[in-house]
């Protein structure tokens, strides 16, 4: 996997801050403030409770340090690392109040992102040996898109478009309203700038044949069988990127990849991946 660049703190901090404010409500952590003396210091560790791939350690770090900048957060592994039950991910030391108050926010984000990274890695492993790359979609949790797409990269996948404005994707409803693939593409070509990539979704080989006479940068082959995908790849013959979508899981992914497609897009990676269980354990 290529080196994983961390997200700029400028992007991550507002998300973590908003999550903390949601949890603190109007009166703060009334339990911790009542039980724990103001000057008390603790040492804790973040530890994995199951096999997986880690992502989101910076979110956990910020959850503690926004509450108390003197908290020391020492990562033991890096995002993108594969871990087993009991693996210590990071050591945290400082104000007990800050650590207990920030615990749930930090773990919510780290568990969520690590779950996405783990699911992505599982699919990437399933298609190893084929050229197909696993990519995510815009089916992300509102407000968390940058983090969730980062987690996909941590798991060895890649990102599809980040928003509606960075590429054209003509889908079935666009085609229905325009009347045909050709008319939808014509309207796009008349409107989009020369730097904008154009991808078109097709459901049938007949639609693909029509698209091939028009030209595009990529084609989304939606809900096709592996045999139909292989025929579509043969028809395209390298003239555009081929992307398969629909009914992708660890069991179906190898056959989809064997069709020769360039990309396999998977929405559930960011909308339904189970979390990776991570705990915050007191050690002194």
UniProtKB/TrEMBL annotation:
NCBIfam families: nadC (TIGR00078)
Functional note: Involved in the catabolism of quinolinic acid (QA).
GO molecular function: nicotinate-nucleotide diphosphorylase (carboxylating) activity
Domain Quinolinate phosphoribosyl transferase C-terminal: 116-281
Protein name (database record): nicotinate-nucleotide diphosphorylase (carboxylating)
Gene3D superfamilies per the UniProt record, alphabetical: Aldolase class I, Quinolinate phosphoribosyl transferase, N-terminal domain
Domain of life: Bacteria
UniProt-listed InterPro entries: Aldolase_TIM, NadC, NadC/ModD, Nicotinate_pribotase-like_C, Quinolinate_PRibosylTase_N_sf, Quinolinate_PRibosylTrfase_C, Quinolinate_PRibosylTrfase_N
The entry's keywords: Glycosyltransferase, Pyridine nucleotide biosynthesis, Transferase
Domain Quinolinate phosphoribosyl transferase N-terminal: 29-114
Family statement: Belongs to the NadC/ModD family.
């Amino acid at each position: 996997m290529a080196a994983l660049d961390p997200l700029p703190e400028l992007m991550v901090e507002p998300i973590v801050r908003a999550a903390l404010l949601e949890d603190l409500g109007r009166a703060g952590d009334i339990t911790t403030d009542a039980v724990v003396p103001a000057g008390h210091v603790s040492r804790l560790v973040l530890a994995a409770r199951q096999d997986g791939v880690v992502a989101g350690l910076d979110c956990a770090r910020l959850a503690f340090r926004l509450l108390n900048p003197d908290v020391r957060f020492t990562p033991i592994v890096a995002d993108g690392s594969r871990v087993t039950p009991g693996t210590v991910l990071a050591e945290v030391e400082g104000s007990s109040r800050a650590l207990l108050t920030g615990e749930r926010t930090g773990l919510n984000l780290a568990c969520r992102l690590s779950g996405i990274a783990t699911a992505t890695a599982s699919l990437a492993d399933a298609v190893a040996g084929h050229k197909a790359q696993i990519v995510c979609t815009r089916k992300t949790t509102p407000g968390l898109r940058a983090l969730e797409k980062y987690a996909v990269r941590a798991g060895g996948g890649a990102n599809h478009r980040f928003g509606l404005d960075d590429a054209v994707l003509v889908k079935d409803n666009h085609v229905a309203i325009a009347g045909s693939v050709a008319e939808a593409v014509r309207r796009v070509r008349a409107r989009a700038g020369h730097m904008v990539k154009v991808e078109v979704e097709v459901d049938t080989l007949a639609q693909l044949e029509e698209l091939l006479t028009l030209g595009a940068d990529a084609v989304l082959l939606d809900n096709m069988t592996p045999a139909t995908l292989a025929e579509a790849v043969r028809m395209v013959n390298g003239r555009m990127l081929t992307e398969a979508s629909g009914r992708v899981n660890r069991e179906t992914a190898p056959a989809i990849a064997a069709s020769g497609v360039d990309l396999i897009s998977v929405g559930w990676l960011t909308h339904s991946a189970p979390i990776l269980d991570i705990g915050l354990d007191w050690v002194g």
